[in-house]
Amino acid sequence: ETGVTQTPRHLVMGMTNKKSLKCEQHLGHNAMYWYKQSAKKPLELMFVYSLEERVENNSVPSRFSPECPNSSHLFLHLHTLQPEDSALYLCASSQDSRAGYGYTFGSGTRLTVV
Amino acid sequence: ILNVEQSPQSLHVQEGDSTNFTCSFPSSNFYALHWYRWETAKSPEALFVMTLNGDEKKKGRISATLNTKEGYSYLYIKGSQPEDSATYLCAFYQGGKLIFGQGTELSVKP
User: Fold this and answer.
1) Nearest CA of chain B to the CA of A113: how many Å?
2) Cα separation of A52 and A56, whole Å?
3) Cβ contact (<8 Å) for A105 and B43?
4) What's chain A's Rg over C-alpha atoms?
5) Fewer CB atoms < 10 Å away: N or C end of chain B?
6) For A21-69, how does the pLDDT look when each residue is reduced to its tens digit (9 = 90+)?
7) What distance in Å separates the CA atoms of residue B102 and residue B87, rounded to the nearest whole number?
8) Is the pLDDT of residue B46 over 60?
């Protein structure tokens, strides 16, 4: 257990469904991130939150909607996804969003869109 | 477009072999270079965060060097063990975000 917990671990959803991914950390970190990993591709940054404010939206389609209600929790709300959105979604946190701080990752949610 | 390139893509070695891989990144506007180790079915784990040209960091049998002027970092594993089998990721920090390479997949056979 890394200190960053993601739920659920696996999710299968239809294209018309609405679901949410949850990430939780109690490391006292001030920055949280969503990354996506598709098959054979590098980790791709989706969103960055620093002190609960979104500071980066990396050209992500609006069918992905992040929410950061406090510094310990991060959600990714999903609606009307496409099969190509099937991927591993990783949450991470760091003490600060500046350069010198390593990230602590969760175990990820394996999402399958059918 | 910011590219972080890692080579080789995969590596198969025997237990006891020493090995190294390369991470190449843009040499301008350098802030930090991260290395992560990602075992199958687990979370990526931070190995090193390197910020200064000429940095050398060590953690057990794993070490890393950094050359920011020419834009590369090497990761070395001395005397590889089967438990070192994992994907090793480097990531370049720029503009408030980490850009990851595709990783080097290491397999160590007993």
Assistant:
1) 20
2) 12
3) yes
4) 13
5) N
6) 999 999 999 999 999 999 889 999 999 998 878 877 778 999 999 999 9
7) 9
8) yes
Categorize the per-residue pLDDT at B2 as very low, low, confident or very high, splitting at 50, 70 and 90. low
Q: Which residue has the tokens 């893509």?
A: B9
Q: Which residues of B touch A106 (CB under 8 A)?
A: 43
The beta-carbon contacts of A13-19 under 8 Å, at least 24 apart in sequence, are: A13/A78, A13/A81, A13/A111, A13/A112, A13/A113, A13/A114, A14/A113, A14/A114, A15/A80, A15/A81, A15/A82, A15/A83, A15/A113, A15/A114, A16/A80, A17/A78, A17/A79, A17/A81, A18/A77, A18/A78, A18/A79, A19/A77, A19/A78
Judge whether A95 is closer than 8 Å to chain B, CB to CB.
no
The tens digit of pLDDT for each residue in A12-21 reads 999 999 999 9
Q: How far is B63 from chain A (nearest CA, A)?
A: 16
Residue holding tokens 């687990």?
B42
Rg value, chain B, Cα = 13
Q: For residue A17, what are its two tokens?
A: 């469904």
| CA B55 to each of CA A41, B31, B80: distance values in angstroms, whole numbers, following the listed order | 28, 13, 23
